[in-house]
């Protein structure tokens, strides 16, 4: 039986609390709220795997993160999404860091498996040493490269739309909300990313339920 998995950044408890308070404050909105315990930031959207493929993905996870530095995320507003389509989501959106370069170190970082020891930014043709660059887009691109490089993962296609850092907090019937009342959308939610989860999405009548299958922290030691 195939399982629906994805890769996500877990949301810390203090930010879940802030999102939950925002939801309660705007309880009059006719939406289906995402439970705070189910909040996450998707890095790689769902695809289906069998048990052997799941094993390969779980095995790949720590090697892809090896040498990467933790990086900050800031959400500053709540918007209707997705952009350019009929609205059906409420999500928090903020800065999508293109790169985060930590202070120089005398230690040479080990190479990240599956990426030939280099981090590449395709939009500019620039290469960065492995372990020197973090950030949401580099994280996403790194996982895409590593998953595509291993046919045993069952992953076969990158997203065609541009990467956009967002946190979905509610869903609603497409087009039923045209505009958010002001100043509803102003928030200040931030945290530092330090780990990534391999998750399973289980579709239920009341909405998807999520389970963490594997959790890996950033850094050279794991």
Automatic annotation (TrEMBL):
Q: Where's the active site on this chain?
A: 40 (proton donor), 166 (proton acceptor)
Query: Kind of enzyme, top EC level?
Result: hydrolase
**Coiled-coil boundaries:** none
Motif HXTX 1, per the record, lies over: 40-43
- The answer to whether keyword Hydrolase applies is yes
Keyword Hydrolase applies: yes
Q: Which UniProt keywords apply?
A: Hydrolase
User: Which one Pfam family would you cite for this protein?
Assistant: LigT_PEase
Signal peptide range: none
InterPro entries named among the record's database cross-references: Cyclic_Pdiesterase, Phosphoesterase_HXTX, RNA_CPDase
Q: Which family does it belong to?
A: Belongs to the 2H phosphoesterase superfamily. ThpR family.
Q: What is the stated purpose of this protein? A: Hydrolyzes RNA 2',3'-cyclic phosphodiester to an RNA 2'-phosphomonoester.
Protein name as catalogued: RNA 2',3'-cyclic phosphodiesterase
Source organism (scientific name): Candidatus Sungiibacteriota bacterium
